[in-house]
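hi support,

uploading two proteins for the ticket. first:
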Amino acid sequence: LKRDTSFSFVSTFYLRLLHYPWTPKKLIACVRSMFYHGYDNYIHHAFPKDELNPISCSGVETLGGYTLTLVDSLDSLVVFGNWTEFARATNWLEANLNFDKDVNVSVFETNIRVLGGLLSGHLLAKEEQTRTPNRLKNYRGGLLNLALDLGSRLLPAFQTPTGIPYGTVNLRSGVPPNETTITSTAGAGTYSLEFG
């Protein structure tokens, strides 16, 4: 029998990682570094596309052509306290993001990553404006307006006998013809946060 060396390499790596003497300060620095490595490379090589293709180091539209990684990163920017970049990203999204597209998208992915990102970004912005009035002075609720627009475009997917949505919706015209009625009940439960 041939030994699977890839498994032993991976397991050895993770065992060493688990036994590394992480201090909270080292762990925070490592996570921050990892986030900015991905985020900065996305901004430099892929923005405003959805995602960064790490092999070609170029942007790709993977979900709907709505700057997915930027929306998905809003809450992380807040966690790291980078209000300057959060404000820049929010201003860009308010001025440029548009969901009036003839594109079929995954209802599940669009809900959790885009609608959820816009809603959490709006709530974080409003909370920060209350806490620090001079910060985010230009924010006027644009992320919430975008979330309302996107949510209304996802609603046709819920017009089913069970209320469990179709898996795909066209952002301009609704549920595509011949869309399968097969869906995941586990996936249906996730909508309660954004639509609840």
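and the second one:
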Amino acid sequence: MGQVQREDSADLKVDYGDLQLSLNEKQAEVDQYRTENEHLRLDFEERLRNLHNEIQLQQKRFEAIVGEYEAKIQQLESRVQESQEERDQLIAEHEQEIRAKDAELQALREELAKVKVPTNPDLVEVVKQVAENVFENADDVKKN
């Protein structure tokens, strides 16, 4: 019985040694995985910070571009307003000129209405005679 106990004890020591070696190997693997995991986590965090910084940079660029376009839009709106004001002023000036010309025209019409054109029948007869003579003379000139 003593010998069986020694063999069992020797087997147990071998089994314990094998288990301890296996445990040490597994612990080394776990430590390796933890180290790799830590490196991956650090790498991920660095990439995340870089992406966050890039997003902020792009956002600032976008805001600058939007600001530029808003300023350009404001300038264009201001120019449109100025153009509309100039147009309205020109229209008002032209309308004023038209009213002044209409008033002049009306005054001339009124003045013309006051003037009496003589309608002397003898004068009309003389003008007819002169016209006939002119046409006859023109015919004679053509014949000669």
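thanks. also noticed: The helical segments are 2-114, 121-143.
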